[in-house]
Amino acid sequence: MDDEFFYGNKAPSGVIRAIKFDVLTENDIEKVSVLEINAAGQVTGSTLGLPNTSDECATCGSKNKKICEGHFGVIKFPFPILHPYFMSEIAQILNKICPVCKSIRHKSKGAQLIFGIKRSINCKYCSGNGVGRYPAMKFKFSSNDLYRRTAIIVEVNDKASKKSLGRSLPADYWDFLPYDAQQEENYVNRRVLSPGQVTSLLNDVDPNFIEKYVPRNNLITLNCFPVTPNCHRVTEVPYAISNGNRLSFDDRTRSCKKLVDFRGTANELSSRLNPDKTPISIFADIQKKKVAENACNSSGLRWIKDVILGKRNDSTFRTVVVGDPSLELSEIGIPCHIAESLQVSEYVNRQNLEKLLYCCELRLLEKGQINVCRKGSSIHLFKKEDLQIGDQFYRPLCDGDKVLINRPPSIHQHSMIALTVRVLPISSVVCINPLCCSPLRGDFDGDCLHGYIPQSVSARVELSELVALDKQLFNGQSGRNLLSLSEDSLTAAYLLMEDGVLLDVYQMQQLQMLCNKGLAPPAIVKSPSSNSSFWSGKQLFSMLLPSDFDYSFPSDGVVVSDGELVSSFEASGWLRDSDCNVFQGLVEHFQGKSLNFLFAAQNVLCEWLSMTGFSVSLSDLYLSSDSYARKNMIEEICYGLQDAEKACNFKQLLLDCYCDFLSGNHEESENSMTVDADSLNYERQISAALSQASVDAFRHVFRNIQSLADKYACTDNTFLAMNKAGSKSSLVRLAQHSMCLGMQNSLVRLSYRLPRHLSCAAWNSQKGLDSIQIYSGTLESVQSYIPCAVVKSSFLTGLNPLECFVHSVTIRASGFSENADVPGTLTRRLMFFMRDLFAAYDGTVRNLYGNQLIQFSYDIDENTSCDKSFKEYAIGGEPVGALSASAVSEAGYSALDQPVSLLEASPLLNLKNVLECGSRKKNGDQSVSLFFSEKVGKQRHGFEYAALEVKNYLERLLFSKIVSTVMIIFTPPDSSSLEKYSPWVCHFHLDKEILMRRKLKVHSIIDYLYQRYYSQSTEPKVGFTKLKISSKKCSVDSTAKEGEDICIDKEDSDDCITVTIVENSENPIQLNSVRDLMIPFFLGTTIKGFMDIKKVDILWNNQSKGTNSYNGSSGELYLRVTVASSGNTGRFWGVLVNHCHKIMQIIDWPRSHPDNINYLSSAYGIDVAWQYYYKSLASAISDTGKSILPKHLRLLANSMSASGEFVGLNAKGMAQQRQHASVSSPFVQACFSNPGRSFIKAAKSELTDNLQGSLDALAWGNCPSMGTSGLFDIIYSEKGHEVDKAVDVYKLLEASFDKPNNKIGFHAHNNSSGKCGSEFRHKNGYAFKEGKQWKNILRNFVTVNDIQKLTTASRCILNKYEIDELLSEFDRSTILRVLNFHPRRSEKLGIGPQDIKVGWHPKFKDSRCFHIVRTDGTVEDFSYRKCILRALEVVDPKMSKIQKKKWSARDDAQVQCVTKDIE
């Protein structure tokens, strides 16, 4: 790990300022390739780098994937093919020239004169402009033919020739094409060209003309193909069976293998290289699996994220987080084994030299060597005395270090916090204070925390000054305080404020130890002699506040004067995370010190809560104190559910379909309407509108049922206490557990419905009735339902099987799985659009791309809740765009708690629509919002009548909507008539009820039909010369029975409109023409309203934008008019205004507007559109329940309209903004969407990306030009000032300090390393104390068990190698650790070891020992037994004597055996 760490921290050899995109030529491919691939196995061979089967790169010899970046190969084609990137451009070139004379074609003769181009008089294909026997031809690029080939196709571009199937073409028409054996099959009017034929057609074309489409002529054909390194295509997958890794290959590897030794035609080879061709199966899989990134995955977006944008760092950790209230708010508890494995970079100087020498001893015990960086290069030290001032040393993480943590996803500004390390004797998890969960948006149910260790001084300073917890006291999203009481501490604070809470002297003395203030005089003193004094809970809370703190919260009656709580009601609003809470006041007045007050309050409140014995049990779910009260509560719940059901039915009856029944206008008949509960329940589950009305009515009544919990519950109920405090619990959840579940409704449509009474008998009865109706054919065909039912039981009493099923289904159907990716998508897009916006030093907000001005000022509004004296303005270089983007997108994540429903608008989707409002729908319907004038509200119910009048005036009513029956009746013509009428007469029978409801007159309907008839010139399919339209009374039944026209006037007859055609004697009208042409033509006639308007909805606006109000409420009625697209959507607003000329006085036109932001901008200007976008965004975010500072919304609106119009939140919108700023950024556009297509487009255009953005810089190893690395100028006067000479940093570090003898203590807790990289662990905890000797270090960090392991390992290493064989890297490290215990270690090491080998002992010829090969070439032997015995003498002297006797006895036995052999 150390070697890899040093390799990754090598200084770069240069700084990348820009990247240029270009297409590789054949010479470029051969230059970067190390191997010409001639066999399929070489595609994944060891020559192309790691990973491979040999685990070693054959080109560079490296075994480390971090060192070997891979090597390219090349596949030579047997014949040249057309370059797949330029096939469409080649087709354009061929269409611009004559294929025979190679002259350039121009549409007009004037262009020919301007360019000086003369057509060849003798060219058969140029004369006559393609008219005659040699018609014009058209070249096109095709990759979707029957055989899935990619080729250039030429076709005859003449309709007459196509109709004659080519018989008019001359025999020599295709003779200009040279013969090619690889030419595909030929057709009469069509040829599939081979690459050779295309090349021959381009041979004599002007090169300057070709370069207008293709950058260079050598890019037209392709003779070879580059093969990327193995690391780009091959993945190592652990394989348990073989105890190793197996290789996994992607589609690119398989495609490359198919290109090797290819046998086929050139067009078939081109089809395999076509970049725009995606197999149909891939699109099918994408649609089937609903991949969130859709087709972008196939183009390499995932590879861009993982390889290019993703950065790897060894100085990180990821583990589960738990809570520890004993930790301070700015601390994080790190397990000791994790702290040992993490390294911190530190430069050696005189102040930290002694501490780092102590770390060197630990490193030598653990690794056997020390790795330091000296003057830019990595070196290995084997003695701590070799450490020099100025060296860069890597020590373990210890107390006091700064660590940057975040809990993914990092969705807002405070997701990343710098905390101070505190090493703890724990394992596997890290600890934080529970109050820090709020900014991290996490809890302790298995959430993971990511940690990052800064490796430079500048990084540590940035963490301390920018993202430390005391620097993030205010929430950058809402402006409120970031931290406040929560969970148990909030509950304790609420309970402490209750009247009657008293504490005796012993409790107060116990709690005073955790407070910063002295004990106040008791509130109650019974007798001075008995010492029976008591303090109130308010007095205890006053001890947590500073003495000079004043605060008031009028709504809860809270007054704090000089740090003393004077008064307060039994409410917790001033304690919660809300506006103007008490901790916000502390932060405003005391800044960083407020963390100490909050930490002390948490300790005191939690300690008091444990003293009271506060706990939760199942008895709290019973609510009532006895069974009698419980019985009364259940009865009230039953009555409440009955009232709720009546309210649902009544609200349902008020809807439009029951208006006639309620008003008494419904005529009595045999089939009179009967309304019962079962039918209402059935219809409620069919219609979304009815279901929504019923659910809303039920919720309104169910609130009264929930209030029974407060009425019947005991005073000490813990659930209600937590609910009132605002810490935990929910009144709805408590009601479901203890009282009843209430209305259970699905938010999505399902294939079944539910009975009104949830019981198994009712379910079976419903299924049986449905079966009977299916058998008899009377069951209505309903595709889906919206199941809803009332569960009268609770979890406490238990649910029957059907109730349990209903609850499970509705809860599961209410999930947000289908829209869970929406917040992430919005976050990603907003960050791409705004991450490069920064606050410039002149106070403006600019974009890194082109230094484009976005906003003139980024000042905080004056009406924010922060105190004016502590408002912080944006500093120069601050990434304000990223802060605003994260603040807005975080509201989308909070909206996931409100799932998408059919019954009500989704705040998440509403926010998505507002953010994407710049996306134009070319052929989609457009909507506008019409608001009513103030004059309308002066009358009673004026807005309601106005809404109905405008809706009735604008909404179109088709003739087909009022026609009940259409009949074609054969009527013999009247011989006395002068005109000859067709016998086929159309009868349109009108619905009497609709005519009466819509107040329609028959004569007006006839007028509209005549108007449509007179405008038949726009309908070429309808060619009737003359019509006669009349009306009469007729009976449908009698007409159908008689079969002839016997219409008579009757009171009970329907109105009938007849249409008779005047026909021509030479061309009589047929029945089919009347049925197929005339009837659909008239049924599509608009008889009321306007044809362009499809629908008019009456809606309610909760936040009134004007002075209008509805009965004193805060909202108003308005209309949403949906206008059908007619091909020119830009004029629909003017069309609507012209339609409304008769109702101009009713509508408030200054406030009415198109809903699409772009059309609003076209109609009223960009300023009005900006205001509308800002208000819509604020309203959408308010619906999510979040509060965001206006500066974030203002910057977002300015960013989306920086180009002068609102752009879409997509790749096209980003391209428009870059084009407006005259900046090219293909790299960022590729990272945003479809990288393959973006890179190809940039390469074909030979674009240069100057890497101006922050993402560009970070991806290519540079510092972004904003933030702490932003660019700024230092202006100074040259007079009297000279530039200082360069100072050697190493000499500077060696200089004497003012206080060189200062001791800096670093304490760490027990660092047991049982399963981590370190094999030595401290027995009683270790502390970085200066002045410790080597023996003390050895006793603290090395155990007998460790020494025994080293003994066994040394013996195995000594015996497994041959004589004079060098040790491997791992074994060498082990023996160096053993050598560290040698009595004469420095003498043995000399100037430093280069290698270690096994050899014969110089005195005992038959005994093995280790030999050190020094860097100067000398060799020194040593015995590992001396090292082990020396270590045991220090750690355990008794064990040392035992081990020495054991080895001595073994040696004596070996000597005796040798003596006997000699004898």
Automatic annotation (TrEMBL):
<dbReference type="InterPro" id="IPR007080">
    <property type="entry name" value="RNA_pol_Rpb1_1"/>
</dbReference>
<dbReference type="InterPro" id="IPR040403">
    <property type="entry name" value="NRPD1_N"/>
</dbReference>
<comment type="function">
    <text>DNA-dependent RNA polymerase catalyzes the transcription of DNA into RNA using the four ribonucleoside triphosphates as substrates.</text>
</comment>
<dbReference type="InterPro" id="IPR044893">
    <property type="entry name" value="RNA_pol_Rpb1_clamp_domain"/>
</dbReference>
<dbReference type="GO" id="GO:0006351">
    <property type="term" value="P:DNA-templated transcription"/>
</dbReference>
<dbReference type="GO" id="GO:0003677">
    <property type="term" value="F:DNA binding"/>
</dbReference>
<dbReference type="GO" id="GO:0000428">
    <property type="term" value="C:DNA-directed RNA polymerase complex"/>
</dbReference>
<dbReference type="Pfam" id="PF04983">
    <property type="entry name" value="RNA_pol_Rpb1_3"/>
</dbReference>
<keyword id="KW-0862">Zinc</keyword>
<dbReference type="Pfam" id="PF04997">
    <property type="entry name" value="RNA_pol_Rpb1_1"/>
</dbReference>
<protein>
    <recommendedName>
        <fullName>DNA-directed RNA polymerase subunit</fullName>
        <ecNumber>2.7.7.6</ecNumber>
    </recommendedName>
</protein>
<dbReference type="InterPro" id="IPR045867">
    <property type="entry name" value="DNA-dir_RpoC_beta_prime"/>
</dbReference>
<feature type="domain" description="RNA polymerase N-terminal">
    <location>
        <begin position="218"/>
        <end position="497"/>
    </location>
</feature>
<comment type="similarity">
    <text>Belongs to the RNA polymerase beta' chain family.</text>
</comment>
<keyword id="KW-0548">Nucleotidyltransferase</keyword>
<dbReference type="InterPro" id="IPR042102">
    <property type="entry name" value="RNA_pol_Rpb1_3_sf"/>
</dbReference>
<dbReference type="Pfam" id="PF11523">
    <property type="entry name" value="DUF3223"/>
</dbReference>
<keyword id="KW-0804">Transcription</keyword>
<dbReference type="InterPro" id="IPR006592">
    <property type="entry name" value="RNA_pol_N"/>
</dbReference>
<dbReference type="InterPro" id="IPR038120">
    <property type="entry name" value="Rpb1_funnel_sf"/>
</dbReference>
<dbReference type="InterPro" id="IPR000722">
    <property type="entry name" value="RNA_pol_asu"/>
</dbReference>
<keyword id="KW-0808">Transferase</keyword>
<dbReference type="InterPro" id="IPR007066">
    <property type="entry name" value="RNA_pol_Rpb1_3"/>
</dbReference>
<dbReference type="Pfam" id="PF00623">
    <property type="entry name" value="RNA_pol_Rpb1_2"/>
</dbReference>
<dbReference type="GO" id="GO:0003899">
    <property type="term" value="F:DNA-directed RNA polymerase activity"/>
</dbReference>
<keyword id="KW-0240">DNA-directed RNA polymerase</keyword>
